[in-house]
Amino acid sequence: MHITIRGNRKYTIFREDLDYVNYMNILRESLDKYSNEFEIISYVLMTNHIHLQIETKERHIGIFMQRLNGLYAKYFNNKYNYVGHLFQERYLSKIIDSSSYMIELSKYIHLNPVRAKIVENPADYLWSSYNVYMDKRKDNIIHREKILSFFENDNASEHYKKYVENLIEN
Known about the structure:
Elements: E1 2-6, H1 17-33, E2 38-45, E3 49-56, H2 61-80, E4 92-94, H3 99-115, H4 130-133, H5 145-148, H6 156-169
Antiparallel strand pairs: 1-3, 1-4, 2-3
């Protein structure tokens, strides 16, 4: 499932690095709470929105997203004395209905900071799962094998890198 969460009125939802860290901690805690019900395939945290590629098992994604968004909004509102809705709406979701869309979505997510002209290379952006795919960082919540299994096994990370970064060059 492709989940998009936007800041209300395109408002900034991450003001400093600690906000990104806290969001990731809440994401980890939420995954622990619903162990084995949801798997993160890829993600990117942008200044005013978030993309999550999530595989769901039995439970409805709504229960997970309600907890994740609710706890982060509470943290943010308390920290910045913010009143009102942090997020534009509950969240947007789209079902991943094919393998090709699944792979394409991970590329789209990982290239978000490049398209936004924040970085020139997705590996330079801290707040995404791209470097987990590149073996530059470990993170046990990322199920990269769901994407890398579509690439040649001898060096799937390198093949994925070429697939993603080919779009930058063209």
